[in-house]
Amino acid sequence: MEQHAPGAGAAGSERIVRPRWRARLVRGFVAVVLVGHAVLLVRGYADPHKFFAFQPFNESSTWRADIVRVTADGRRVPIEEPWPGGYDWDELVRWGVLERPGTMRHAYSGLGTSLDFLDDALDWVADHTPEDDETLYLEATTEAYRNTRGPEVRVYRSELREEAR
Questions:
Q1: Helix, strand, or coil here: 116?
Q2: What's 15-33 look like in SS3?
Q3: What is the pLDDT of residues 38-68, one digit of tens each?
């Protein structure tokens, strides 16, 4: 319950006096919100998608990938060659950022984000090509230039496919 303190303001006005626990509660809430924002900001820089991490300028990074289908007998077949079941990489991913991966392209939302999407796409394509009974897994060898420095070469693999075992 609020109490009124007489004579705290102009003539005839009263000042509202709130309990001390309420002031502590408000201060604690503000502290929790500020600490939460700081945690999200710091964590954002460790995440490849940079959620809640402010970037004043875009990266000038570029990347490309050579993607192959590794068959159960060890052959490495480029994705540009015909697949069993008539699959096509560009039709499967249907996203301009990941289409034609063999060409050098700008990492429009950051290099980490682009390569993370590529890694996820390898798993998705491996899971969504049931008529392909040859491919054991997909493998992408990437060449990346982070803000014109590089190259950084990494290899990404999809999960093993049950259909080819």
A1: helix
A2: EEECCHHHHHHHHHHHHHH
A3: 888 777 777 676 666 666 667 788 999 999 9
Peptide bond into 130 cis (omega under 30): no
Q: Is the peptide bond before 151 cis (omega within 30 degrees of 0)?
A: yes
Asked if residue 102 has pLDDT above 80, the reply is yes
Report how far residue 138's alpha carbon sits from residue 109's, in angstroms, rounded to the nearest whole number: 24
- For the cut 80, the answer to whether the pLDDT of residue 154 exceeds it is yes
User: 44-69 burial, b if ≥16 CB within 10 A, otherwise e?
Assistant: eeeeeeeeeeeeeeebebbbbbbbbb
How many angstroms separate the CA atoms of 11 and 24, rounded?
Answer: 30
| Average pLDDT of the segment spanning 107-121 | 89
Q: What percent of the chain has pLDDT over 90?
A: 51
| Pure H helices in 45-87 | none
